[in-house]
Amino acid sequence: MRLEKLTGEALSDAIEDVANLRIAVFRDWPYLYDGDLNYERAYLQHYQNSPEALIVGAYVGDWLVGASTAAPLKAHEADFADAFKGSRVNIDSTFYCGESILLPRYRGRGVGRQFFEIREDHARSLGYTNMCFCAVVRPQDHPMRPPLERTLETFWEERGYASMTGVTARFSWKDVDQLSESQKKLQFWMRRL
Predict the structure, then answer these.
(1) What are phi and psi of 94, to 5 degrees?
(2) Gap between the Cα atoms of 17 and 31, Å rounded
(3) Backbone phi, then psi, for 66, in 5-degree steps?
(4) How many CB atoms lie within 10 A of CB 72?
(5) Do residues 24 and 64 make contact, with C-beta atoms less than 8 angstroms apart?
(6) One pLDDT digit (tens) per residue for the chain, 193 residues
(7) What's the rounded Cα separation, in Å, for the pair 128 and 123?
(8) For the residues of the chain, what is the DSSP string, one character each?
(9) Are 75 and 63 spatial neighbours (Cβ–Cβ below 8 Å)?
(10) How far is CA 28 from CA 56, 89, 145, 151, 171, in A?
(11) Distance CA 171, CA 75 (A)
């Protein structure tokens, strides 16, 4: 497996593959996302529109098996304005980590750690001093919660991230077991670079 930093035209060329990968990976717990390709293309436009954005592609041969995105938080400001209202976060000095997605059979090889390192180095090289991301919060009694759920909180904490008290976003999407969209809470995590 090789990791590639994709920016500019290379980033734009990978968007369709990243969209399809997001749909495939996010069907699983905890997102349970019943994906839509048109929505994915629109969402990923944030990255195409930002000259500082980055996609880290994980490839086996020419096949994209994983991806991790990052862009300045200000590129997503409209989406997250309510989440950061009242916080002391300087949006202009903060880089946002989007998804880290990897097909299941390629997990457990240190790729997640490399995704974070590459995105953090990219943000530092551009002069950003904070890095954040958000993750969906599901109720403990959710009927689709796996019996042996693997949480990533310890991994994030080991990387220096801390949950941001009171900084949450709300987004709606259709779960795989639902007929219509429902609102989900996403918790922000942040670290200094």
Answers:
(1) -115, 135
(2) 19
(3) -165, 160
(4) 21
(5) no
(6) 999 999 999 999 999 999 999 999 999 999 999 999 999 999 999 899 999 999 999 999 999 999 999 999 999 888 888 899 889 999 999 999 999 999 999 999 999 999 999 999 999 999 999 999 999 999 999 999 999 888 899 999 999 999 999 999 999 999 999 999 999 999 999 999 9
(7) 5
(8) -EEEEE-HHHHHHHHHHHHHHHHHHTTSTTT-B---HHHHHHHHHHHHH-TT-EEEEEEETTEEEEEEEEEEGGGGHHHHHHHHTTS---GGGEEEEEEEEE-GGG-SSSHHHHHHHHHHHHHHHTT--EEEEEEEE--TT-TT--TT----HHHHHHTT-EEEEEEEEEEEEEBTT-SSEEEEEEEEEEEE-
(9) no
(10) 21, 31, 10, 13, 17
(11) 17
Please calculate the CA angle 171-177-181 and round it to the nearest 5 degrees. 30
Beta strand 2-6 pairing with 94-102? unpaired
pLDDT at 110: 95
Q: For the chain, how big is the Rg over CA atoms in Å? A: 16
**Would you state the structure tokens that stand for residue 87, as one six-digit string?**
């916080």
pLDDT in tens, 117-128: 999 999 999 999
Cross-strand partners of 135: 187
